[in-house]
Amino acid sequence: MPVRAPRLCGCGKVVPSGARCPCEAKRDAERKARFDKARPNSSQRGYGRSWEKARKVFLARPENRFCKWPGCDLGHKGGPALATHVDHVIPHKGDPALRDDPRNWQGLCAHHHNSAKQRLERRSTRKDQQ
Questions:
Q1: Any idea of the CA torsion for 73, 123, 88, 101, to the nearest 10 degrees?
Q2: What is the pLDDT along the chain (130 residues), one digit of tens a residue?
Q3: Which of 76, 78, 80 is nearest to 107 (CA)?
Q4: Which of 24, 12, 27, 108 is nearest to 67 (CA)?
Q5: Domain boundaries defined on the chain
Q6: pTM: predicted TM-score of the whole model, two decimal places
Q7: Beta strands 85-88 and 105-108: pairing type?
Q8: Radius of gyration of the CA atoms of the chain, in A
Q9: DSSP, res 27
């Protein structure tokens, strides 16, 4: 099977296919650090002790134990994974009534919450801005 040719990074280094140049990793880390520095902490965003308690109770219920993402097969023996994150079905965008309404919550595994759901929300945000 043919292997892709190495590429030339902007800094001038030759980088093997599928690998990242150390300068790219450093640039990404700096960008993320700038973002995190300006971002309010979880309590300031509305996710304090009361949210943690409600989240724990929600995920402990039998009907909310597994990931609700359609077709999730990341769990044991190809079944749905355990839900570790509470996701808002309708993004609350700072509205406390929508944020704190358990009918607007669903349990998701870390993979689907951090990748697929975030990708969906980014797409819908772009459409709203146009």
A1: -150
A2: 568 899 999 899 999 988 999 999 999 999 999 988 988 888 888 788 999 999 999 999 999 999 999 988 988 888 899 999 999 998 888 888 998 999 999 999 999 998 877 787 777 655 555 5
A3: 80
A4: 108
A5: 8-38, 49-129
A6: 0.66
A7: antiparallel
A8: 19
A9: H
| Residue 89 per-residue DSSP state | S
Smallest Cα–Cα separation from 104: which of 65, 95, 115? 95
By three-state DSSP, how is residue 7 classified? strand
Tokens of 110: 């870390």
- For residue 74, give every residue at least 6 positions away whose Cβ sits within 8 Å of its Cβ, in sequence order, or none: 67, 80, 81, 109, 111, 112
DSSP string, 76-96: GGGSPPBP-EEEESS--TT-H
Q: Which single residue is written with the structure tokens 């030759």?
A: 14
Please, are residues 83 and 68 in contact by the beta-carbon 8 Å criterion? yes
